[in-house]
Structure formats: C-alpha cells, structure tokens
Amino acid sequence: MSRIVRAAAVQISPVLGDDGMGTARKVCRTIREAAEKGVKLAVFPETFVPYYPYFSFIKPAFRFGAEHLALYERAVSVPGPITDMVAEAARETGMVVVLGVNERDHGTLYNAQVIFDATGEIVLKRRKITPTYHERMVWGQGDGSGLTVVDSAAGRIGALACWEHYNPLARYALMAQHEEIHCAQFPGSLVGQVFADQMEVTIRHHALESGCFVVNATGWLDDEQVRQVAGDPALEGPLRGGCFTAIVSPEGRLLGTPVTDGEGMVIADLDFALITKRKRMMDSVGHYARPELLSLLLDRRPARTVHYVDDAACEGGAP
C-alpha cells in the first residue's frame, strides 16, 4: 500500500543582528504557514539559527574575531529556549521539523542539525563531522554518534549538511540504515551559480543511489543583507547565487520547481511506493551490495575528551 507524506523544502533568509530569537520566530511562522498547506515535514537551511557564518568565507580569520564572538553570544543551546519554541510549533502543527543551528557547547560552536518529531520531541541532534574549508575556523568537529537514521511521524529520516554529501561513506552509513527521506541543508547565497549546479547533481545522485526522497533547503540573503554582511562592495560577489532548494524523488526526478532566488517553499507529496519501485531495480545496501567484498566500519561512540572510571570499581581505588 502507498503512503504519502507532504514535505516542504524552505528557502528563507535569517534575521540578522538580533539574538537569534527573531530568526526562530520566523521559523515558527513558516512552520504554521506550511501546516496550512498540509505539510507534515519541513526542512530549513544549514545553521539557519541565528545565521550561517558568511563572514568566515569572505574575511581572513584574523579579521573576523568580533563576528565570531557575536555568533558565540547568539548561538543555540540544545535544548534551550529556541529549541523549546520550535518544538512547540512542531507539536502544535503535528509536523516533523528539521532545523540547522549554530550550537554552542561551552567553549565550542558546532554545525548542528536538529530533528523535531511531530510531538515536539527532539529525536536527533547531530553535528557536522568535518566543517568545510573556512568553516574549520568557526566550528568544532562532530562524531559518528550523529550518523543515525531516526524514525519519525514522517518516516525514517537521515540528515547531512552541505559538503558532508561529498563523503560517500557518511552517505552510505545513512543508506545502510534504510533512510526513506534524506534531509539536506546548505547555506545558500554563497559561491555563485556553480554551487547551485553542484548541489543539484549531489542531491539527485543521492536520491538515486539511496533510493530515497531528498528534501534540500538552502538559505538566502537579500541585497541589503549581502551589503550588511560584506561591509565592502568588493566582498559582495561571493555572497550571491548558490541557492537550490528542491525535492527529489527516489528516481532522481525533481518534484516541483526548485527555488533558486528569494524566499519560498518547494512543496511535494512523497509517495513511498516510489522507494520500493526504485529499490526493486537497485538496492545499494541490499541485493546490489557485495558485503563480502566491500563493507563500512562505523564508530558511533560519542567522542569524549575525558573517560571517567568509578574509583570503587578499581583495585586500590586508583583509576
């Protein structure tokens, strides 16, 4: 029997310059607008709350200390007031929400993806395993504990951020857990058209290879925000283009018209019968796999800087 879930990929601009609550309120308004259209799964862009660190792409590290510190002050605690607000909107609308945030954990920021179930419960918080290029000066590294597919009211969901999609083993880790919907997030308003072109290839290929739906959301900066972030007309060019918000079927087809400029939503009905149709032909982790030849070792233990040993369990009381 076919099961159909209506999904929305959201292209949206942040509220710059506030404490993150303005952007979070915008997320909640958008969730409620999507609910009026029958949406049951909404995906928002990479590190959307409070905003993606665009400054790190256009400025050398020794010049963006003030912007980095401001991001620390506005970053999100998980759980915390901002996630509580989004959880309430998810619960109120009965919607699964995938949100990208800058997470602060004491002295380190992380690129985090948070999945809220339709009950408002956080069913996954994962961190980008390898920040890309300029991002390595902003965020710490995630670990294998987040390479997890979770059950939700919308189906089995996996998520990766941006160029994590260029790590084939990370993608395979989610494929092997039989994700039905893959939620992808990119910053948008970055690099230019070539970034959008590459993004389309990436998400369509993953849909084909995994035999799943891909819901991809990118952020967007309007002209005034580009000027505000750049602070110099010579730096504005790299902050334009690079948007490709889209939904892809397991057959690699685009469902609806992608959003490449401005704010908007791509909404599509995901017919899960297409997953079986695709996997009957090619199941990368089933009948098309050769595990006796090729396999993946995934360490899903959370990374820890300190390992505590109970003194009472040690001989002589020494760890």
Automatic annotation (TrEMBL):
<dbReference type="InterPro" id="IPR023919">
    <property type="entry name" value="Nitrilase"/>
</dbReference>
<feature type="domain" description="CN hydrolase">
    <location>
        <begin position="5"/>
        <end position="272"/>
    </location>
</feature>
<dbReference type="InterPro" id="IPR000132">
    <property type="entry name" value="Nitrilase/CN_hydratase_CS"/>
</dbReference>
<dbReference type="InterPro" id="IPR003010">
    <property type="entry name" value="C-N_Hydrolase"/>
</dbReference>
<dbReference type="InterPro" id="IPR036526">
    <property type="entry name" value="C-N_Hydrolase_sf"/>
</dbReference>
<protein>
    <submittedName>
        <fullName>Nit6803 family nitriliase</fullName>
    </submittedName>
</protein>
<dbReference type="GO" id="GO:0000257">
    <property type="term" value="F:nitrilase activity"/>
</dbReference>
<comment type="similarity">
    <text>Belongs to the carbon-nitrogen hydrolase superfamily. Nitrilase family.</text>
</comment>
<dbReference type="Pfam" id="PF00795">
    <property type="entry name" value="CN_hydrolase"/>
</dbReference>
<dbReference type="InterPro" id="IPR044149">
    <property type="entry name" value="Nitrilases_CHs"/>
</dbReference>
